[in-house]
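Bench notes, bay 3.
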Amino acid sequence: MKKVLLVLLALPSRAYKQSLGASLELQELLSSKSVAEATRLVEEELEGSTESATANCHDYTCGDGWAPKPNHADLPGSSDAECCQQTCKLFTCSKGFVPNPSYATNVGSSAEQCCDKTCEGFSCPAHLQVAPQKLHSAGNTVEECCAETCENVTCAANYAARAERKAKVHPPGEAQDFCCAATCALHTCSAGSVADPTRLHLTEPSDEQCCKSTCLSAVCPKGSKVPAAKEHQVMTSTEQCCDTLCGGYTCGKGWHADPLREAKFGNTDQACCTRTCSVFACSEGWASNAEVADFVGVSDEVCCKKKCVQYQDKCTGDYAPNPAANDTVGDFAEVCCSRTCALHHCPAGKVLVPNPKDAVGSTDDLCCEDVICSDFRNKTVVEDSTKGCNGLTKEKCGSSKVELTNTRTNKTDVLACNWSIWGICSLGPGHVPQERPCQVPNGNFIQSTR
């Protein structure tokens, strides 16, 4: 037992530590076997420990940029190459890649293991490009690598896109200044010139680029002049700048030149001339009057004659309205109205019918009746026609009449009662009936005789 302890004490410190970690089998031998057997086992273990200690990676510390191999404790060796593996810290990224400090302790020796791709090789969608400031920065997405080009920029009013920068990326916050240029719409032309509306879209504004002479420089032909409204307009032609004066206009048929308008602008009859009655359109109820065709100062009263339609409400008294004459030229009753019987002259033995103003016409048949009709209307019809006039007193006889049916004409005759020389009332001897029409109060006519 003493020999074993002495041997352990004589071991190097590392070997001693390993021996102290001997297996249970050795410990059991130390307690139960012979000293010779235990000594042999200890010597065998010590021999193996000594060999390992002289060339084992377990005791080797890797250099900067190196990391122990996974099984380095069991590997023989005493150098980085034998015991360690290279980390990304020692790797140099190639073109299109940039180092990432967080990969420095990673084991690797390729760009894929140790580096990040840059935006230089990234393919952006349409209308986007890799931003210049991001070409050498790590990135692999649209958000990381791409930026808007001028093609996507909408220029402000009166600015136009710079064609040469259409596909270029604009600096952040400088889209308008970088991608757009001022147009002629923003240019103020010098005195004597005016903006040319056909050039408002051009860039690089200047008087030469944006402006043209105005109509003030136009030389107008006789009878025309530049109106004030055109003085500052671009002169594209003399015709465009010069407007006709009424003094240079020839009036059409039915119009007379108006000397008061010679200096005014105009090129129509209405603007420059005075209308005559020959081209005046009469209003409803009026007819053209050829006798005043050349008159000016036109109006219905000057150029036209009244039609009877305007006179119909004046057809009163002995006249009645006559709609058939509405389109007839006239302004008095004899032309425009219908005559009533009140204006008719009856022949001898006849008189006008009652209320002659109510009868429209001018014939004897319509307007006249027998002179006896008035006397007959005032007589009283005998109630008993079978008795006739017989038995009537002299006073009553003179105011009575009898109605009898005429068998020849099949009409009613009215016969007057007469007081005879015999002192009786009768129709009278030797009477020859004669038809004489009379109008009765109800408007009908009856035949009367005497």
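Next record in the batch:
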Amino acid sequence: MGYQSSSSENPNLESTLKSRFDEDRSTALMSSYAAWLRKHPSALESFEGMMMPAKGKSLVVFLDYDGTLSPIVEDPDQAFISDNMRSALQEVACIFPTAIVTGRRRDKVKEFVQLHNVIYAGSHGMDMLTPVSPLRCNNMHKSGALDEEGDEVVSYQPAKAFLPTIQELLKVLKEKTKTIKGAMIEDNKFCISVHFRRVNIEDVNSLKDMVKSIIEAYSGFRITGGRKVIEIRPRIDWDKGRALQYLIQNLGFNDSNDFLPLYIGDDKTDEDAFKVIKDVGRGYPVIVSSIPKETKASYSLRDTNEVMAFLVNLVNWKKSSSASN
């Protein structure tokens, strides 16, 4: 009876098996992604067809920040936008009303982007500064303010009453999570992010259980998820979808059929905005993803490079359309 060596005793065989496994997995992923693309076609490859209904209408552009304008990075404080992306965004904002809707602090994202012709909606839309007119919403949660340039704006903060408790929660979370290496607490003003991208995989569930246990003592808050992050938000009826509706109203398009909203985002929290666009029945919900995932978006872009290419196409399309009229 012959002796058969195991793969662990034959490094070449082990390497060959691993290579074949990786190839099979890669082929399966590519096949899955190709099938997903048929449902959510590339916004770059579909660009001309997408823009046909937009001729003669006003396009309003909304964008997430992390994973859309800036790549996802290990340290959220290092999520800088590239100079090329900033230039593309600036050109878009010179032509179309443009807003960044993010879970981050509004002032933090503005510091990253450094553009003054963009509306910034931070904390998932719970912290917004918008132009004074037109205003077509009720006055609840609104107040007059001046922005950094001294221009008159309207501040909208529907979760303002929760600020003292949020600050208390921040202190508790920072103290309790010290025991878990790699955990990072981010103060996003009206919400709190607990990042676990740097946490050892065996400690992630312990961190989640710890956060859940802490939040159970605060009935006014809820936990949601994102990409390697636990989000803690006030328990109010507000999300990126509601923020999108507010901004559409604030910009004066609510009673108009001559506008099309375009929203580009990569995160689970962006799905609320995609749903609003679907419910409106017109516009462009675009997911940023290089893997298949459940989404309400109609179109897709693979990564931030494709987002930038799409924004450049948008500018060129508008310039070409204007020149031909």
